[in-house]
Amino acid sequence: MDSKGAFNLYEQYYRNNKTYGFYLRESTWYSIGQVLFIVGVREGDELQGTLPYFNNPQVYVKLYYTNSIGEINEATKYKVIRIEDGGSYRY
User: Fold this and answer.
1) Which residues have a Cβ under 8 Å from the Cβ of 76 and sit 6 or more positions away?
2) Among 27, 41, 43, 89, fewest CB within 10 Å belongs to which?
3) CA separation (Å) from 52 to 3, 29, 30, 43, 47?
4) Which domain of life is it from (predicted)?
């Protein structure tokens, strides 16, 4: 956790009981992202390395083109992106 109380993607994975599918925002996206997986980590497994960066593995996110989680449904357009700075506190 940073000084403003934010958690990076890896810390969020732990806060979500080491499960994928949690949602996040990043200020420049203007949309919602859903974490699909962390490269090299099976859902429920521990991350390698030390807190808070865990060797900074890549994270794949389904980025929805919407401004509210409540609007997400099967018809919502999206794209899958790769995040290479999951240890940063911008998400």
Assistant:
1) 64, 65, 66
2) 27
3) 13, 23, 26, 18, 10
4) Bacteria
